[in-house]
Amino acid sequence: MSDTSLTLPTSTLSAPPIVEILPALVQALRQCPRVVIEAPPGAGKSTYLPLWLATRGADPTRRILLIQPRRLAASNVARYLAKQIGSPVGEKVGLRTRYDRKVSAQTIIEVVTEGIFLRQIQRDPELRGVDYVLFDEYHERSWQADTTLAFALESQAQWRGVEQPLHLLIMSATLPAEALAEWLKAPVVRSLGRSFPVQVSYAPPGRADPIEHLALQIETVVRAGAIKTLVFLAGWQPMQRLQRRLAGRIDGDIYLLHSSLPAEQQQLAMAANPSGRAAVVLATNIAETSLTIDGVDTVIDSGQVRRPRFDPSRGMDRLETGWISRASAEQRAGRAGRLGPGRCIRLWSQEQQGRLPAHDAAEIQQVDLAPLALELALWSSEASVENILPELPLPQRLAEARHLLVELGALDSNGRISVAGRAITELGLHPRLGRLVQCGRERSWQQEAYRLAALLSEGDFLRREGDDLSADIEWRMQLLRDGSQNSAVQHGVMQRIKQLAQQLMQRDGSRNGERKGTGDAATPSLGVLLLSAFPDRIARQRQGGGERYLGIDGFELVLARDDALARQRWLVIAEHDGNRQGARIELAAAISEQDVIEGLQARIQHTEELAWDEASQRLSAKRMRRLGAIVLDEQLVGVDDERAAATWLCELRKRGCGWLRWSDRVEALLGRMRWARSKAAAWPDFSECGLLATLEDWLLPYLPGIRRLDDLRALDFIAILRARLDYAQQQQLAQLAPERWLLPSGVQHDIQYRADASPKLAARLTEFYGLDRHPSIGGEALLLELLSPAYRPVQLTTDLPGFWRSSYGEVRKEMKGRYPKHFWPEQPWSAPATLTTKKRMPSAPS
Fold it and tell me: The sheet that has 93-96: what strands, in order across it?
């Protein structure tokens, strides 16, 4: 480090715990321009270290960048640093977020969000005029933090020399420091920090209502004397429900701390309570790091957090509620030990605490990768550029993201960034929304495009508390234009949307508003704008109208009951809930079929499909125009034999031979053939699997002209199957597996051939008289089923002589009793066989 060239006022600076590690930090920076700093909350990473670095030679030409993951944290840190040196924000301490830009020629320390830093390093990879980059709260592992750190490392190695080194400080309270240091090839400097003990207890709700359980915990700690209680919740809706549940139940003030609230309300929640009464702050994980919330002595932690997760069925991120990590739990608990001994109540069990993951997973594995893919393409044309990242995304998801960018025109077919793609990155929006803004410019619909992009970027400003909220974006845009005081409006979110829209307009050099003119051509179409961003989210109403739509991807989408959009045949879906059983549409705009066809002309496919029609029980060929799963129009066409035959074979393989409903004669023939194959070598396979595998050999020649299932079933399958055998095999079949057996009665009976069992012959017992040898075929005894005169089973045997001389005597007694008119001789093996009663026999026996 160089000698101090500019000394900032330090009279107001206290000595936080991080002061103790400054000598070690100086030594580490002499050895390596990258250092990992592990320090607990309150150690002074964000509030002291940048000022200390500034006193060691920094100036406006050697600035310090302090990167914060959230806008609210960035704003508060900038204000705190500026206050420490008695200077307003925008002079020596600057601030740059999406909504604020307060910097000047005097600025030495710039507090910036991750998105702003990403734009800065893309525009200037050398980071000219920057001496230090401090990555604060890096443990949150957002994709932007991982990406900008990777870019900064390349900048450090390729753009900055020894004489003008770029120093990188990666800071957090709960980093997996060793693993990160190994990747960075950097030393680790640790601060023990200074905090007071926090008593941690566990109070799982069990079967109780979680919100009521939480309200009771708050009541208890307030009555016990808690001064300021910080409650961590998973989002806006549970915060509101809890606020309503607490109304009138505690003697104290209730504040909300959420990014959607106006700045003045956020400041009230973070400041010391002016009334002197007990205070309860209901917050999301926005309060977990960086923010200073005065006076907290009690933390109640729900253990829940809302994180972005990529949903493949939606093709975009959605916020998903889940459990925090152990590291986050420690961060939250530490908020109660800043000023003195504190208390933390965790609303889960101690056993579950041990099952929580140690650290949060890297966001890059879980979110929409389209923005990352575009940034990587802008940074370098090399396809392997993602290898610079600290953790590699899944290749398939990165490939899908690049495919979307090609569809949006942001990348060319070779994966290189296009002129349009470069323009999109400058907007600081998701690539879809950047394309939307470009579409607005192309059609001179800028103002409407800016509002719509801002709305989709910041999220819906209407509170979704029931199932009757319309998905209509046009309605929301009207509320934005009119400044409506609708009770469902979240005014903080609406204000951010208006700010972002204004910023987008200011960046546009043309700023001439909408195109002048009359008629439909001059009227901005939200559907057309939305289509440019979401070409994969078109949906058409199901036949019969109503609230159900078919998406271009084949998914069913559903509007809320009585939604006015249900009068529209075509919709562009911006958001839905991802339910695979019928996704609930949350944001959408109507569009005409003509605009759909014009906008997606390149995606329309002309196909001819031949398929089985269940209703008509025949093959049907249709010529269609399709948009993915949506059939725009179709007409019946003729079916050629080759394609018809291929379709029959395909259907048969799906449905099995049972679909043909073979007659008993065909089944009997197959039984014989299968049994004969077990006795003879080199026979065709007549099993169901064998028949289905060889359809082309034995069935295909008979399919020309067949279009109806009845015609297929009517084919002569006896002849078709026999044709699989040559002459010698047919002769062998007759010998090995005769179709019938002649009994002494003079009657031939069918032999039943069965899989994995002996052939079976069933006949009345009286027809077997005169046989003293057991019938057999192929060297295998037939299974004889001996029947009564009423054709009821009497005996199964594979040893007829043995039966005559053993159990026949008992059978004879029973049969004589039941059927006295029939002949039951004492020695059946030598008696004449008969089909009739004694009276009708030629010579009636006694």
Answer: 101-102, 93-96, 109-113, 63-68, 130-135, 167-172, 34-38, 188-190
